Amino acid sequence: AGKVNDGHALTNSKEVLNIIDDTDVIAVLSGHTHQNKVSCYGKILLSTADGTAFGVNVSNESMHLNDRTGFSLCTVEKNGLAVQTVRSPDEINTMLSFSLQALQHN
User: Fold this and answer.
1) How far is 57 from 33, CA to CA, in rounded Å?
2) pLDDT under 50 in the chain at which residues?
3) Which residues contact 5 (CB under 8 A, 6 or more apart)?
4) pLDDT digits (tens, 9 = 90+) for 53-63
5) Cβ distance 96 to 53 under 8 Å?
6) Which pairs with CB-CB distance under 8 Å and at least 24 residues apart come from 8-11?
7) Whole-model pTM?
8) Short-list 56, 68, 60, 37, CA closest to 97
């Protein structure tokens, strides 16, 4: 087993990964988080695809919604799985930005 490089939106990731650990599962594929994430748990690939409506960039202080969209093209072969991220457009424009502090309740 390995350590999960978080960023995937699963709230019970440890439970799920414990279930699939030591099985023939080679990947966990998911989507609709508006951020592309790829990491590994041991030998298991974890891949979360971009959103198809808009993208999100988050920093420590703010969140930015942009016009980036994308998907993951997955190819299964005898020796494993390949995941290619496809994004559009080449030039990303911010549509809306706001402070994360403004979202917190006092």
Assistant:
1) 11
2) 1-5
3) 39, 40, 46
4) 888 888 889 99
5) no
6) 8/33, 8/37, 8/39, 8/46, 8/48, 9/33, 9/48
7) 0.70
8) 56
